[in-house]
């Protein structure tokens, strides 16, 4: 399980495949049910954002070790329109699609580490980590 | 895929037993509203015992279906939300404050009967 896995996000069902794969990985790593749900939910949010705003992209999963800590890392990468103002999209309730605007700020709270970088017109990358407790 | 909707007296009962993708969730919203219209049901219980992920999209669909059903005159109770799901919803900042909930299907039916008799 040390190799990296990847799910291509192109159609709606890929959102489900990505979160199922992530949950299985998390379970195998030893995460409890609550953290499994947090990880699966975060993946669902990131995958849907790719599907909705970029059209397509990839979600990569791997295991990170920072001795003695071990965790799961998820990277959501797309070459879509990008985000102009990161500060704005990280606010609860901000949505350009009539959604709840809960996705990105929610993912930040669900996970232990959260990094987002985006270049308008070129794409977006969100990297999150959840550590095993 | 479609979620079955059962009718019991004046109530509609739904137990979500499949993985909820966006399309299935939207289809369910539509099917439920039609079923309420068709049957004149006054109460609805949606049991979520088997649902292990509720993300912001599904939460929105569920919240909307409750408001839409209310507009049509049917009360909806959500039941069986798993502890892990409740915790992730709070992390997402989703409190479903105006949505009636109950521990399980049986409690949900009791709650419906109480609200409808008031
Ligand atoms: N990968 C992305 N590429 C381009 N824009 C994005 C991307 N992800 C998010 N955004 C922008 O950031 C906004 C906020 O995203 P967030 O996931 O927090 O909320 P939402 O998707 O609008 O609603 P929700 O996730 O609650 O259904 C989006 O409305 C969109 O404009
Ligand atoms: Mg989103």
Describe it.
- The complex is a heterodimer of chains A (133) and B (118).
- Chain A has one domain: Histidine kinase-like ATPase, C-terminal domain (Heat Shock Protein 90, 2-Layer Sandwich).
- Chain A is built from four helices and five strands; from the N terminus they run βααββααββ.
- Chain A has helices at 12-29, 33-54, 86-89, 103-110, and strands spanning 5-9, 57-66, 69-78, 113-119, 123-131.
- In chain A, helix 1 (12-29) runs antiparallel to helix 2 and helix 2 (33-54) runs antiparallel to helix 4.
- The longest helix of chain A is centred in the N-terminal third of the chain and has 22 residues, at 33-54.
- Chain B has 118 residues and is α/β, with parallel strands linked by helices.
- Chain B has a single domain (6-117), classed as 2-Layer Sandwich (Transcription Regulator spoIIAA), CATH 3.30.750.24.
- Chain B has helices at 22-39, 56-72, 83-91, 105-117, and strands spanning 6-8, 11-15, 43-47, 75-79, 101-102.
- The longest helix of chain B has 18 residues, at 22-39.
- The mean pLDDT of chain B is 95.
- Chains A and B meet through helix 1, helix 2 and helix 4 of A and helix 2 and helix 3 of B.
- The site of magnesium ion has 5 residues of chain A, from helix 2.
């Amino acid at each position: 399980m040390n190799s990296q896995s990847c799910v291509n996000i192109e159609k709606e069902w890929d959102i489900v495949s990505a979160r199922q794969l992530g949950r299985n990985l998390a379970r195998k790593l030893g995460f409890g049910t609550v953290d499994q749900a947090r990880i699966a939910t975060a993946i669902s949010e990131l995958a849907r954002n790719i599907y909705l705003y970029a059209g397509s992209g990839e979600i990569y999963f791997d295991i990170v070790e920072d001795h003695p800590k071990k965790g799961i890392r998820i990277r959501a990468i797309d070459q879509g329109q990008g985000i102009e103002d990161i500060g704005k999209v990280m606010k609860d309730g901000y949505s350009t699609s009539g959604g709840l605007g809960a996705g990105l700020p929610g993912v930040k709270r669900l996970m232990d580490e959260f990094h987002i970088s985006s270049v308008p017109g070129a794409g977006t990358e969100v990297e999150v980590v959840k550590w095993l407790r | 895929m479609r979620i079955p909707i059962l009718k019991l007296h004046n109530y509609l009962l739904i137990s979500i037993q499949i993985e909820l993708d966006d399309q299935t969730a939207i289809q369910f919203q539509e099917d439920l509203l039609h079923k309420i219209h068709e049957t004149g049901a006054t109460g609805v219980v949606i049991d979520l015992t088997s649902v292990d992920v509720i993300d912001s999209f599904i939460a929105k669909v569920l919240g909307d279906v409750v408001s839409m059903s209310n507009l049509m005159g049917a009360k909806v109770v959500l039941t069986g939300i798993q502890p892990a799901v409740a915790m992730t919803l709070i992390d997402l900042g989703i409190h479903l404050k105006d949505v009636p909930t109950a521990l399980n299907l049986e409690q949900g039916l009791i709650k419906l009967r109480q609200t409808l008799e008031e």
